[in-house]
Write a structure and sequence with these properties.
The protein is mainly beta and 565 residues long. Helices cover 10% and strands 38% of the residues. The strands form ten sheets. Strands 2, 3, 4, 5, 6 and 9 form a six-stranded mixed beta sheet that branches.
Length: 565
């Protein structure tokens, strides 16, 4: 579980003339997490002043939309009476590219800018293309003051104001396929009632994309009656009386969902839930709930204790301890030469692709009883799913094979764009798949749902992830992995033939470049939640990410690297 906090400093609009510049307001403190930026302050918006020009009215309105207020009361003051009555800021957000200020014409003020993304009423972000073009319809009211008659249907904010005024929280939902939670990022305003919004996001359920993978909501219209946070960091969630009808497994799942979601806020240590005046408790009688209690359902739990494995000099080796990158322990000698490999989550089985990428070999980690599972095609790096399945992709998606207990099961795929597969990564929850497709030298990243049955595996629901790296020129995605339950780490080849690494949120809302600045010829990446990201060069140099563009050489002479998956 993680909560990303980007810069919390609102851009102060350079208002001149009769208008006042907002220079004070309530301060909200947030701690940045991995991939975040520096914390700061929010500047509260001010209402319009008499005599403000059309342009200043629009600028003030844009600023007011980028800073949360209850019912956006200040922003409404920039609108005509009818527009203020009809405006629905809660309906969603349009996020437009930075660097496109509103322009004043002879008759009105117009904003024209590329559309970067949208946020629906539930707080879920989606990458978007196209253009925002809005004529604000400036008219004078009875007092002779300019007001906006044509606001956007919801909020309209720049990318900068979006990343500073809103924070992503992972909302968790119980998977229908097993005892694990599936995360979806939801953006809530930087505000005191952000925790309440997150509670109601969980109660309302997942987006339509994730819904087929999760357990149906017991009471889909349920809302919290009160949510409070005490000084010790415990959130008290009060539910209405009808919630007492939720019992047994449904209650246990909902407690897990709320606990992992709310403990993603830095100021939250634990939660407790009440319904109809009675305190809920877990199956073992606990009422004050922390993520540790539900560690078995946390998709990222346990990975922080996994040592990295490398193949070098025909030896399969493992870190002696998680922090020791010098002493590697031999676990198998005489390992076949491989281009890539994977280790099961139990660390009992390994699987590798031969150097010519035509054979898939698998066997016990601590023995030599290896066998060839498949031959032919151009095989990519294998992967083990959370449930123990072995996934073997090829450059053609139709060549994907999934093995259960050593036997291949049928795989069907629908709705995926044309292109060759460049890389594949199973999410830590095991129910979602990240895929890199390449067509005509252009890479695209997307997510697929994984639906399992006794008869086999079905992949569907292709959802593009627009990776806005801010880099000019064409860049290809060479490899990817999951560095958290909701973040992807990407290995990119730029137009200048230089390789680099960045972290992208699974919804495409945030991208952070992390280097390395001096490493060249990167070919593969290995990552799991809670462990350092590793990148491997074609010359066998293994780099370890230590943060803030700080990469250290972890080992040399390495043929392939993997974390247990």
């Amino acid at each position: 579980m993680r909560r990303r906090a980007e810069l919390i400093a609102i851009l102060v609009l350079a208002l001149t003339g009769c208008a006042s510049v907002p220079t004070s307001g309530p301060v909200q403190h947030y701690q940045p997490s991995q991939g975040g930026a520096t914390s700061g302050v929010q500047v509260a918006p001010l209402p319009p002043v008499d005599g403000a020009t059309q342009l200043l009215i629009v600028e003030g309105f844009l600023h007011a939309m980028g800073t949360y207020q209850s019912n956006y009361a200040i922003a409404r003051q920039y609108l005509t009476t009818q527009a203020a009555t009809n405006w629905r800021p809660e309906s969603g957000i349009q996020v437009y590219a930075d660097g496109y200020p509103p322009a004043e014409t002879d008759q009105s003020v117009v904003l024209i800018a590329p559309l970067a993304g949208t946020v629906d009423a539930s707080g879920a972000y989606s990458s978007a293309g196209g253009q925002v073009r809005l004529d604000f319809g400036l008219v004078k009211n009875d007092a002779g003051q300019w007001r906006i008659s044509n606001p956007p249907p919801g909020l309209l904010v720049s990318k900068y104001l979006f990343t500073t005024g809103f924070v992503a929280v992972d909302a968790y939902f119980a998977s229908a396929s097993g005892a694990v939670l599936l995360p979806e990022s939801r953006f809530v305003p930087v505000a005191d009632d952000g925790i309440t919004m997150a509670v109601n996001d969980v109660l309302a359920g997942p987006t339509s994309w994730l819904a087929p993978l999760v357990v149906a909501r017991p009471l889909p219209d349920l809302r919290a009656t009160a949510v409070t946070l005490d000084s010790s960091g415990v959130v008290d969630v009060n539910l209405p009386g009808e919630a007492t009808a939720i019992d047994g497994d449904q209650r246990e799942r909902l407690l897990a969902e709320l606990t992992l979601t709310l403990c993603g806020f830095d100021q939250v240590r634990a939660i407790q839930v009440r319904a109809g005046g009675s305190t809920w408790f877990t199956a073992d009688g606990r009422t004050e709930l922390t993520p540790k209690i539900f560690a078995s359902m946390d998709p990222a739990a346990g990975t922080s204790m996994r040592s990295a494995y490398v193949i070098a000099d025909d030896h399969l080796r493992r870190q002696a301890s998680e922090g020791n990158w010098i002493d590697l322990t031999d676990v198998q000698v005489g390992v076949p030469k491989v281009a890539s490999f994977a280790i099961s989550g139990s660390t009992q089985v390994w699987a590798g692709v031969s150097q010519d990428r035509t054979k898939l070999i698998s066997g016990p980690v601590d023995g030599k009883a290896n066998r060839t599972l498949r031959t032919g095609g151009v095989l990519l790096r294998p992967a083990f799913a959370r449930n123990g399945e072995l996934w073997s992709p090829t450059t053609k998606l139709t060549g994907l094979k999934v093995y259960r207990e050593g036997a291949a099961v049928p795989v069907s795929v629908s709705g995926v764009p044309h292109g060759n597969v460049a890389a594949m990564a199973l999410a830590p929850d095991g129910d979602r798949l990240a895929l890199v497709l390449t067509q005509a030298g252009v890479s695209s990243v997307g997510l697929l749902r994984i639906r399992r049955s006794d008869a086999g595996v079905m992949l569907d629901g292709w959802r593009p992830v627009a990776v806005d790296t801010g880099v000019t020129g064409t860049s290809q995605i060479l490899d990817l992995s999951w560095t958290s339950a909701t973040d992807l780490v990407l290995l990119r080849l730029g137009a200048d033939s230089q390789t680099s690494v960045g972290v992208a949120s699974q919804d495409g809302a945030i991208f952070t470049e992390i280097g390395p600045g001096d490493a060249v010829g990167l070919q593969a990446i290995a990552a799991v939640p809670g462990r350092p990201t590793l990148v491997l060069t074609g010359m066998g140099v293994l780099y370890r990410y230590d943060g803030e563009f700080n990469w250290a050489v972890a080992s040399t002479g390495v043929d392939a690297v993997a974390y247990p998956g």
